[in-house]
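1st attempt posting a full record on here, be nice pls
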Amino acid sequence: MADLEREIKELIVEALMLDDVTPEGIDSSAPLFVEGLGLDSIDALELAMAIDKKFGVRIRADDEGNKAIFANVKNLAAYVAQHRG
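the predicted structure (as tokens):
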């Protein structure tokens, strides 16, 4: 799971073009939205598309679990691991 978390951190930095953030600087348990990385809903959409493209895991915009899925890198990695083909 640590490898998947690292891949997702790299994807976050690349897909969202976070010039001032390194994958190593992202805490797996820190919130991705508001506090933490401070991402917004547009970032979530771009990240969901990048995850679909890289891992083949689709996260629907109307999924009621999105708040939990995108809470932090750990949750995102767990979701991708669970839904990967």
